[in-house]
Design a protein that fits this description.
The complex is a heterodimer of chains A (115) and B (109). With 115 residues, chain A is mostly beta strands. Chain A has strands at 2-5, 9-11, 17-24, 33-38, 44-50, 57-59, 67-71, 77-82, 91-98, 103-105, 109-113. Helices cover 0% and strands 50% of the residues of chain A. In chain A, strands 2, 4, 5, 6, 9, 10 and 11 form a 7-stranded mixed sheet that branches. In chain A, strand 5 and strand 6 form a beta hairpin. Chain B has 109 residues and is mainly beta. In chain B, strands 2, 4, 5, 6, 9, 10 and 11 form a 7-stranded mixed sheet that branches. Chain B is globular and about 40 Å long. Classes of the chains: A mainly beta (115), B mainly beta (109). At the A-B interface, strand 4, strand 5 and strand 9 of A face strand 9 and strand 10 of B.
Amino acid sequence: GQLVQSGAVVERPGASVKVSCKASGYNFTLYYLHWVRQAPGQGLEWMGVINPISRAANYAQRFQNRLTVTRDASTSTFYMALNSLTSDDTAMYYCASVLMTSDIWGQGTLVSVSS
Amino acid sequence: DIVLTQSPVTLSLSPGDSATLSCRASQSVYNYFAWYQKKPGQAPRLLIYDASNRATGIPARFSGSGSGTDFTLTISSLEPEDFAVYYCQHRNNWPPMYGFGQGTKLEVK
């Protein structure tokens, strides 16, 4: 199985970004889909997760007010939307499907926030 | 929120050495715990899940132990490709809420 993410983007401070993550080759409905980011020179940061069947989402507390994780009802595509961007949001963003004994990760999407 | 504290921050060893990395949780996470390896330009790689189970395809030189609040990742006989940054992760499944430690950099001495 694999997860394929959308391409790199550059956004202005205060703008919003939406990153897609398309699942294929495995039964993605069985496993939660997570979003993780890594800012330059920083560690991994867990952002949130979605149940692909109920589409219920949970978010890390620091992202509660500006992160939305969704799944397209008719396709195997997930989305991560982050608003009110600042330079601190410049990072590589990953989607990941946590299976029983392994993970599947997307290739990452670089989001740069710059004026 | 659960806070994971990893030690040491940096570990300098030579190929063939054994590495011991630690992670302490601010409250019990039972065995809902994982270890990841991260190399530049690559996605994270799951090494250990449920505190002590090797993920699919992970070599036997990687082992995990611990439960509750204290966890250890041991890498016996380091290979050149093992030098990377290692992260611990707690996995609360209901409601689903995960988190990472700050990482331990394993570097060549």
